[in-house]
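Quick one, tokens below:
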């Protein structure tokens, strides 16, 4: 259980059982850097339950959904662009 004042979803992104995420990965300003970091984490993980692309995309989508209305429109735009970059990195532009 999360400590008082912390949300369980924050624990998930900080201490995912499936991916070891780079610190502050979702705070980066370049969508390509975010995608590259997530790809590296997913490709090197031995604990993920799904294929690397799915694990990386799920973590990014989870973060976007968790942050919700707390995301500025600029930050959300960067993160949505990171999804496109992640698709490109995995050769999955049609997904």
């Amino acid at each position: 259980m999360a400590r008082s004042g912390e949300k369980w979803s924050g624990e998930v992104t900080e201490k995912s059982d499936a991916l070891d995420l780079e610190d502050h990965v979702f705070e980066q300003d370049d969508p390509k850097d975010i995608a590259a970091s997530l790809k590296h984490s997913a490709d090197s993980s031995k604990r993920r339950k799904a294929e690397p692309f799915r694990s990386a995309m799920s973590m990014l989508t989870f973060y976007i959904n968790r942050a919700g209305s707390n995301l500025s429109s600029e930050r959300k735009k960067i993160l949505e662009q990171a999804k496109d970059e992640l698709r490109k990195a995995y050769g999955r532009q049609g997904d």
